[in-house]
Amino acid sequence: NAGVTQTPKFQVLKTGQSMTLQCAQDMNHEYMSWYRQDPGMGLRLIHYSVGAGITDQGEVPNGYNVSRSTTEDFPLRLLSAAPSQTSVYFCASSNNRDPKGGYTFGSGTRLTVV
Amino acid sequence: GENVGLHLPTLSVQEGDNSIINCAYSNSASDYFIWYKQESGKGPQFIIDIRSNMDKRQGQRVTVLLNKTVKHLSLQIAATQPGDSAVYFCAESTSLYGGSQGNLIFGKGTKLSVKP
Predict the structure, then answer these.
(1) Between A33, A40, A58, which is nearest B8 by CB?
(2) Is there a contact between A108 and B102 if contact means CB atoms under 8 Å apart?
(3) What is the pLDDT of residues A25-63, one digit of tens each?
């Protein structure tokens, strides 16, 4: 199935715990990104990558790390979870050479930090 | 997600009527605009896009209008159906392509509610 796959779909963490949100795409897209969505806030960019080995910060990068060792995968790491990181996280990808159709989004990971 | 509709502007329309959802964008240098639809519990889904060298683009039952003078974007949905109920986001980018020049900046969204 072509598309963006995110795991897990739901996660509850305790403050201070770490975890990795997984994102994989099988469309050979160069560009991948992570957004968080909070009520009334729209989607805000956390980190993005224009290709394997290249990552950069978005609007709200603090508390998150990313890496891009392959074209397919773009994991998001929370090093020490805080209640302010309770949110829904979306991964998205696009083809830099033919972006018509916009970004393809995953179905999201709902994270609760208690 | 399920809570994305909280605190959002809401547009309520009757089934069969036309809907117009508006968006004011922030960057006069933005070159590319996209409308997304997000249903409860799902990720945003592409609806239609438009480049800044156009002022109108039509798709199936949807039309996007761009007014660069006042930095305004609108999405028109013809013959609105119950399945159109969702939160709609506009997004802008300074580049047609991804990367540091092309990251999408999202608006806060409008919740469309269709009454049968």
Answers:
(1) A40
(2) no
(3) 999 998 899 999 998 778 999 999 989 999 999 999 999
